């Protein structure tokens, strides 16, 4: 019979379409992964992988088996966590997914209190693009995600946490620096930089540009907020950056200037988990803890009572 380990190797290969990267993802050597997948094919009596050429591909049957294997692995994880919860209370690991545009600037304010409140709780935090967070939550790779909204999926419980203003940053010598009550009309025809597609912020900034009459520079899309900050400092364009990032990474630096924008521009941040999770109570408590910390220590944001 096929083993759960072989199923996990097949799922990893389907996601990476590369033997070495798949092996790294499941923490085994490439020969081990390849041998186990060959054994899986032998046990099933059918080919699952198209080998040869420059690209690894799964056969139609391989894709179907991988999809079913993913469901099986998720169910097994649910069984394990349910058993641990019923016997010992929650003492395991919560796997949290966050986007790189949020996690580094929010979690340092949250994690110490989480550890203090739940001393037996172990956190595994991993960054992913928002476009990948929902699928990885549904597949069981994450137990919980904290992400800009919207998070739209029928199988997920989603709660809003807070609104975070987006602030306009420019080069220090930009003509608008030093002016008060800058409005939308002042940003008309301005060149605007955004992070690369796959992030909520890319789509949001694109809509803001349409609303303000600004121009989105698609030839200068940053791979991170730090990249945007550096490009803005060189005078290429302006950018809308989250206030928690501005607080953490800009502060009193002179490489960019923060404008006093008289416009209500913000992103909503929320938390989500699978509807069937056995730790719904814990996740509700974590949501309330994040709101409490945000209200007490993060004056930039506005807490949402969901």
Question: How are the SSEs placed, and which strands pair?
Answer:
Elements: H1 4-16, H2 19-25, H3 30-44, E1 49-50, E2 57-58, H4 60-88, E3 93-98, H5 103-117, E4 122-127, H6 130-138, E5 144-148, E6 156-170, E7 191-193, H7 200-212, E8 215-216, H8 225-233, E9 238-242, H9 243-250, E10 257-258, E11 266-274, H10 280-297, E12 302-303
Parallel strand pairs: 3-4, 3-5, 7-8, 7-9
Antiparallel strand pairs: 1-2, 5-11, 6-9, 6-10, 6-11, 6-12
Helix pairs in contact: 1-2, 1-3, 1-4, 2-3, 5-10
Describe the structure.
By secondary structure, this protein is of the alpha/beta class. It has ten helices and twelve strands. Strands 3, 4, 5, 6, 7, 8, 9, 10, 11 and 12 form a ten-stranded mixed sheet that branches. Helix 7 (200-212) links the parallel strand 7 (191-193) and strand 8 (215-216). Helix 1 (4-16) packs across helix 2, helix 1 (4-16) crosses helix 3 and helix 1 (4-16) crosses helix 4 (60-88).
Count of runs of 4 or more consecutive helical residues: 10
The amount of helix comes to: 40-55%
> What number is the mean pLDDT?
89
Secondary-structure-based class equals: alpha/beta
Shape descriptor reads globular
Low-confidence stretches: none
Key terms:
ten-stranded mixed β-sheet, 12 strands, alpha/beta, 306 residues, single chain
What is the compact description of this entry?
This protein is 44% helix and 19% strand. With 306 residues, the protein is an alpha/beta fold.
């Amino acid at each position: 019979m096929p083993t759960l380990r072989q199923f996990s190797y097949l799922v990893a290969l389907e996601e990476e379409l590369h033997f070495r990267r798949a092996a790294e993802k499941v923490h085994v050597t490439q020969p081990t992964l390849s041998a186990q997948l060959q054994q899986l094919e032998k046990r099933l009596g059918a080919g699952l992988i198209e080998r040869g050429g420059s690209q690894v591909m799964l056969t139609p049957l391989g894709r179907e088996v991988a999809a079913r294997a993913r469901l099986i692995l998720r169910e097994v994880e649910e069984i394990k966590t349910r058993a641990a919860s019923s016997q010992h209370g929650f003492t395991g690991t919560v796997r949290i997914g966050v986007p790189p545009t949020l996690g580094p600037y929010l979690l340092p304010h949250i994690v110490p209190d989480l550890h203090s409140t739940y001393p037996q709780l172990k956190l595994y935090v991993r960054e992913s693009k928002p476009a990948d967070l929902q699928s990885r939550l549904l597949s069981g790779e994450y137990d919980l995600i904290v992400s800009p909204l919207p998070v739209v999926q029928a199988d997920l419980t989603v709660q809003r946490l807070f609104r975070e203003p987006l602030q306009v940053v420019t080069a220090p010598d930009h003509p608008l620096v030093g002016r008060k009550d800058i409005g939308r009309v002042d940003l008309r025809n301005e060149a605007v930089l955004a992070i690369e597609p796959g992030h909520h912020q890319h789509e949001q900034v694109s809509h803001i540009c349409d609303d303000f009459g600004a121009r989105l520079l698609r030839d200068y899309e940053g791979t991170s907020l730090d990249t945007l900050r550096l490009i803005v400092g060189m005078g290429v364009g302006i950018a809308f950056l989250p206030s928690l990032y501005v607080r953490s990474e800009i502060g009193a630096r002179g490489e960019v200037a923060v404008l006093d924008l008289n416009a209500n521009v913000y992103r909503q941040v929320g938390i989500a988990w699978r509807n069937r999770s056995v730790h719904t109570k814990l996740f509700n408590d974590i949501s309330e803890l994040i709101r409490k910390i945000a209200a007490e220590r993060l004056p930039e944001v506005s807490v949402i009572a969901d």
